[in-house]
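Weekly structure sync, notes
Attendees: PL (lead), two postdocs, one rotation student
Agenda item 3: pending single-chain targets
PL asked that the sequence for the first pending target be pasted directly into the notes so everyone works from the same version. It is reproduced below exactly as submitted, 71 residues in total.
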Amino acid sequence: DSVAAWYLEQKLMEILVTAMSDFQARMMSQAMRKLSASINKQKQLLSSLTNCVKKLVLCLVIQKQHLVDVL
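Predicted structure, written out during the meeting:
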């Protein structure tokens, strides 16, 4: 009788451990997807900002060149 109880307890623990592992894996996967999406958005924002800065610098260079040509 105690062997049967021990066996049942072991099986229940095995099921619980498996369920917890599966849950943790799903949570980690979800977190990684969210983190990846956030990083991609930041990359896009940084790329857009970089392009704006490049255009601004080009405008300033052209403006400076125009002033030099006028003088």
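Discussion points:
- Helices lie at 2-70.
- The chain has a mean pLDDT of 94.
Action: rotation student to compare against the earlier draft before next sync.
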